[in-house]
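Q: My labmate handed me this sequence with no annotations at all. I'd like to see what the chain might look like in three dimensions before we decide whether it's worth expressing. Could you predict it?
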Amino acid sequence: MDTFPDRNDRNPFTPPESGFATLGGPVAIGRYGRFDVDDVVQTSWALFKQNPWRVITLVIGVGILNWLMQFGLGMIPNLSAPIVRDATVVRILSVFASLASMILSIWLSIGLNRALLKYARSEPVEFSEVGNGGPYLLTVILGSLAMGLIMVVPAMVLGGGIAFIMYSDPPSGPVLAILGVLGLASLLTMIYVLIRLNYFMFICFDHDTGVIDSLRGSWEATKGRVVTLILISLAQMAINLLGMLALCVGLFVTVPLTSLMYTVTYDKMVGGPPAIDLGEVKPGTDPDWSP
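A: Here is what I predict for the chain of 291 residues:
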């Protein structure tokens, strides 16, 4: 059973439709019992073991596809320079190539997270799912810009004030201490806001919401869970560090695993526990997978 809203999912070329519109309405966030680092890690590992090649193919495949697209777009200005012979046109092409690269990367990210969420919920998923992020592309881009404004603008104002004080009149020791505390507080606030709004993309495609409701949904879903989310992030970093220590080859396993952890974290906060019995996991028993 597909739990996602019907938005012409099978057409990867569907244009962005959502934007700031309140499509699915405000998201009602449920609370589903236990939510801690151990629970997320155990569930993610059980899901990963159920069909590791599916998860690895999705994450590594999207990574390779993204790299190929980035490489191809990056070559456009260099290849066009001998033909165009106009530095201004080449610079314009470079800007457009960078924008296209960013948009394609976001598009693939949406598709990958949708595919992993389907997998976490034991729904049939194919690799072609990674191309179905079109209907949510505009919302995610606008949401990312909104996040950036929320996080960066206050920091820029504070940073500008600190810089003005530093250069206009050399401050005394106590003033320096106050500025240091303000700077640290600004950094911690940015991290806090990032954690609270970090799941708006999932809210967007899982509940078919616009920018405002997606951000609001993420804020509500993470309420009272910031410490746990920080610990989960530290666990992801530790797992990937182990992958790097294994001559970096281990990253081909740990990166897909930690990507799945990110999805499971969201699903446990909003959608409930993934549809899997942790006591009866049988590796390689999923016949629906086709790369």
